[in-house]
Amino acid sequence: MKRGRVARLGGAEPTIQSLTLQLNYANIAALGQSTVNNPMSVASENLARIRAQITDHLDRGETVKRSAEQSRALMDAIKIRLEQHNAVLVAHYYTAPEVQMLAEETGGFVSDSLEMARFGRDHPAETLVVAGVKFMGETAKILTPHKRVLMPTLEATCSLDIGCPIDEFDAFCNEHPDRTVVVYANTSAAVKARSDWVVTSSIALQVAEYLQQRGEKILWAPDRHLGSYVQRATGADMVLWDGACIVHEEFKARGILDLKKAYPNAEVLAHPESPASVLALADCVGSTTQIIDAAVKSSASHLIVATDQGIFYKLQQMAPDKQFLIAPTAGNGATCRSCANCPWMAMNELEALDRVFEVGGNEIEVDAELAQRAMLPLNRMLDFKASL
Questions:
Q1: pLDDT per residue over 217-255, tens digit each?
Q2: Which domains occur in the chain, in start order?
Q3: Whole-prediction pTM value?
């Protein structure tokens, strides 16, 4: 999906929000008794539905055509609104370049989900505007319950989040009561509250090694590719929830090998949400921040990057002397429907940011008791990270 796609459908067609609601798994009886007895089949069956519905959404999407002058005018208007509302903009690396630029120009922050939340917690602004996906807004609200947290749209979600519904995940955990529950940051507040640990991709290996040394067996969720990578690297005893990122699982080893024929000296930087065959080709496997650090330190002039293309803004900013190549993905001509671009991240457009204070229905709310329970594994991770 190209930058500038509008995250909406025309006429009476379902919106991404309604598609998300269709995937909330509240009525799992319709999926059959076998699904009820196997919570992970919920993830795999519905991941296929997510892919099909996203493909349909992309086919129907409209294209926003905005000149550089119009973009600059919008950015200037948003700057004024942020000042008027004593608000700060925090944006994820996967958002559009102009959104990341706006965050930097207004004294905000561009980073991964946890660092976004920590920056918002420590910033004096009364309101946080989170450009990302819903679980990022929830994490920010959990860390800063006294602040108002707004998002351009609450329709922006994540296949890992909606592919791990709390009722089915709770049942899965109950099937393995002897295991320490470790969940990836890309999960709902309810799933975090059900866990013992929350981890980011940057410290997943260290946490698994720590738990292994303590003789603890791990229940991992929701990304099976990241979980398998951690399992292979650490040898930890792990059972995995069967979830995946619809962007990262599209990267193909065959395409990377073909690209390496054209650029034989290129290094490969891959996010661990990618399939094992892709990670096996990588010179660096790491989180978004670790990929950026590796790019800066690399002596290679060409770097093949297997993660969302939104990161290219920061890569080019930090290493302007290098050429970055998008890792090929599935589909015709070694491309994919999303073109290494999360369709939900693409909802964070300037037009939506311009309406963020007036649109209504876009404030993040997390139940206070649930937030307190989710804060326990989050604090466990933060304390562990501080000790490294």
A1: 999 999 999 999 999 999 999 999 999 999 999 999 999
A2: 248-334 (3.40.50.10800)
A3: 0.83
Give the residue ranges of DSSP H helices in the chain: 16-22, 33-37, 39-60, 68-84, 97-105, 113-122, 134-143, 159-162, 166-175, 189-193, 204-213, 224-234, 253-262, 276-279, 288-297, 312-318, 350-354, 368-387
Q: Which amino acid is at 278?
A: V
Crossing angle of the two packed helices 368-387 and 204-213, in degrees rounded to 10? 80
Peptide bond into 14 cis (omega under 30): no
Q: What percent of the chain has pLDDT over 70?
A: 81
CB neighbours (10 Å) of residue 9? 18
Coil vs helix vs strand at 331: coil
- Give the span between the Cα atoms of 279 and 201, in whole angstroms: 14
Q: Report d(CA 263, CA 255) in Å as an integer.
A: 12
Q: Which two tokens stand for residue 3?
A: 């930058």
Q: Give 110-131 as a DSSP string.
A: EE-HHHHHHHHHHS--SEEEEE
Distance CA 88, CA 287 (A): 24
